[in-house]
Specification:
This protein is mostly beta strands. It has one domain: Jelly Rolls, CATH 2.60.120.200. The chain is built from one helix and 17 strands. The chain has a 17-stranded mixed sheet that branches. The longest helix is centred in the C-terminal third of the chain and has 8 residues. The relative contact order is 0.27.
Length: 265
């Protein structure tokens, strides 16, 4: 568990700073062909640093309907039967979110945590998932609006095969699309961040911030941080700036500047 030092809750390295911060824009995906790609960067793979701290994702989502769909993916399908799998976050039936990590790029070996309760539609939710890189029923932890979900307590864990570390592949990191398939999602996504660390429950609570997104740029081990339209709105089209120090900007694909919208958490 991460211990916060004196002053960190007021904007130190383990808490969002929030200074002069506004969240004015998000991205709207049509479920037909809209997506954002961030390309393939080694740091998008869990434990790419080799430091064994863990891996976490944080983002806000609004679902217009109760159907299932992809939210985040790092997997690819190439002609000739070549497949690359690392992880995916999606909703299944009745909008129950789950995250799945694939072992050694093997589709038959994976760990999954599925949240027991469906997300209500037409409502913004903050989701976070942390992965400690191990292979037990407690290896993945989920959060909805700052509330922790673990196996048997708000979530259900499942696995198959003999676990091996997630392999670094050429697959691109994407929002609202699964690999090269036609699997898209009708949704809104905002304030997406990746960490080379497991986030503590107190840190996730601070990120949720009672339903008001705040600045994550001061958090430790930040791999990527995409604000999905902020701070300049439609004028940034088609680039989604990476607000971490790694400069892995995203590209809006099959989208228009009007898909940068003022519907925000």
């Amino acid at each position: 568990m991460k211990i916060l030092k004196l002053g960190q809750m007021l904007g130190g390295s383990n808490a969002p700073s929030g200074a002069s911060f506004e969240n004015l824009y998000s991205l709207e995906f049509d479920g037909v062909d809209d997506f954002v790609t961030f390309g393939d960067a080694d740091i998008f793979t869990p434990n790419s640093s080799g430091s064994n701290r863990g891996f976490s994702l944080s983002f806000w989502v609004k679902l217009p309907s109760s159907g299932g769909g992809i939210l985040i993916s790092k997997q690819e399908f190439f002609s000739g039967g070549t497949f690359f799998y690392e992880y995916e976050v999606r909703t299944q039936f009745a909008t129950k979110p789950f995250i799945k990590f694939y072992a050694g790029d093997n589709t038959k070996t994976h760990q999954t945590l599925t949240l027991d309760d469906a997300l209500s539609t037409d409502t913004w939710h903050h989701l976070a998932f942390t992965f400690d890189l191990s292979s037990s029923s407690s290896s993945i932890v989920g959060y909805v609006n700052g509330v922790q979900k673990t196996n048997g307590s708000g979530a259900t864990y499942s696995s198959s095969g003999t676990w091996a570390a997630v392999a670094n592949t050429p697959a691109h990191l994407q929002l609202a699309k699964k690999g090269s398939t036609t699997d898209f999602n009708d949704c809104f996504i905002d304030e997406f961040a990746i960490f080379d660390d497991t986030l503590s429950s107190s840190t996730v609570t601070n990120i949720y911030n009672s339903g008001s997104p705040n600045d994550l740029s001061g958090l430790d081990f930040l791999i990527g941080y995409w604000r999905n339209g902020d701070t300049a709105g439609p004028s940034v089209f088609p680039t989604i700036d990476d607000n971490s120090s790694n400069s892995n900007d995203g590209t809006m694909t099959n989208m228009a500047s009007s898909d940068i919208v003022t519907d925000v958490p």
